[in-house]
Amino acid sequence: MVARVIPVEPFDLVIFGATGDLARRKILPGLFHRFRAGQMPPDAKIIGSARSDIDSAGFRELIAAAIGEFIPEELRPAELVSEFLNHLSYVHIDAMGETGWSELRGILRPEAVRTFYLSVSPSLFGAIAERLSHNDIATLESRIVVEKPFGHDLTSAQALNKDLLRHFDEQQIYRIDHYLGKETVQNLMALRFANSLFEPLWNSTHIDHVQITVAESIGVAGRGGYYDQSGAMRDMVQNHLMQLLCLIAMEPPSKFTSNSVRDEKVKVIEALEPVALDDIVRGQYRSGRDNQSYFDDVENANSRTESYIALKLAVGNWRWAGTPFYLRTGKQLRDRASEIAVVFKDPPHNIFPNKMEGRKGNALIIRLQPDEGITLRTTIKEPGPGGMRLTEVDMDMSFADALGDSLMSQDAYERLIMDVIRGDQTLFMRGDEVEAAWAWADPLIAAWEDANQRPVPYDPGSSGPEEALMLMHRGGRRWRPIGD
């Protein structure tokens, strides 16, 4: 299959924090991919900005090295890299002072789409937004992109929103979550709302439960200082897993517009029932043969921050009454894997007595990584003579096989950045959505802090704590194997 490439309007993209790790690993290589695909207009401008006192030539050298490091050689012909670098320039800017702002204003074009990407600490969001406004750099049509973490709790998220809204309207603000740029995540909406096969079954009458898993095989070494202040709840559940839950549980929007979709997502968060402490499992990985313990990685022997969390949630509305949602995420688990499993109920009447033992039942498995795709588990007759014997088979669609490796090689960041240029906010979080997620998460965090409970230890390379298995067993269910 050949991808249809629709060029975007001429744009001036200013990247604050352009010499940082995220810009080097994701943002600039992603933009090169879009340039290589022919989606960037010939007069596009990409303007790097940071505290580093370098010039445009030095910035181009830095990004050339990043492209060489993070993009395979066969995908970066020298002549294309050279052409792409010609679109780059650099302005040394002091985010907290006055250096560089007038120079930046002078190189931006009034007719181009102005986009400001804040790949910086959230503590700088307000200062940069203020200076963009006061120096007459931001226009009414400008767009501003901000990265997570978007707040540490409800109060800080509200403060960040107020800082941005002083200088930009909500329709100009793009709160990016790279999980929503994954091909499979975007396909959730198409799968549900463009196919009559699934939507009539998408409710508590037919679905027994839903599992959402985001497992990582690495620990927190190298970022222990940040992680020990956030933990799995703040780092993953409140944003990434919450977004996946919303896409699975949301009602069909009246139309496919950004606000209609996001309205339905907010309704899901607001419908979440209070969660009892008995329905939460928090863990910390032990040391192993090849790794240190969580305590060692964060250099805090008294830490009570979780590196693993599993929760049982309930969405209190007519569609999902009685259908539990199980969420889990953690570090140092047996494999790197992210998936959503929609497990259907058994048929109301079994006409195959004694032939259904060991059957796992129908399930729709939506794989987000590492091999994006969709699997539908069905029960069939086992081939051969000897009577009716039942077995289970997977109807599997790997997106790389079905759509081609070239389509699947696209990174989430490059898709989302092009959406910003188009002005499409569908896959970006709205301010009230962020605040609703924190309003749900804060009481849970406060409850376990008041209970003064230590996270339970678990072995590296496992599926997490035994207590998480019991969380499922209490309802007569089992987690899917990680990496299955």
TrEMBL record:
Alphabetized UniProt keyword annotations: Carbohydrate metabolism, Glucose metabolism, NADP, Oxidoreductase
Any Pfam family hit: G6PD_N
Pathway given in the UniProt record: Carbohydrate degradation; pentose phosphate pathway; D-ribulose 5-phosphate from D-glucose 6-phosphate (oxidative stage): step 1/3
Active site per database record: H240 (proton acceptor)
Cross-referenced Gene3D superfamilies: Dihydrodipicolinate Reductase, domain 2 (3.30.360.10), NAD(P)-binding Rossmann-like Domain (3.40.50.720)
Glucose-6-phosphate dehydrogenase C-terminal domain mapped to chain residues: 189-480
EC number: 1.1.1.49
Residues engaged in binding substrate: H178, K182, E216, D235, K331
Positions bound to NADP(+): G17, A18, T19, G20, D21, L22, A23, R24, R51, K148
Function: Catalyzes the oxidation of glucose 6-phosphate to 6-phosphogluconolactone.
Recorded family membership: Belongs to the glucose-6-phosphate dehydrogenase family.
Official protein name in the record: Glucose-6-phosphate 1-dehydrogenase
Organism of provenance: Shimia sagamensis
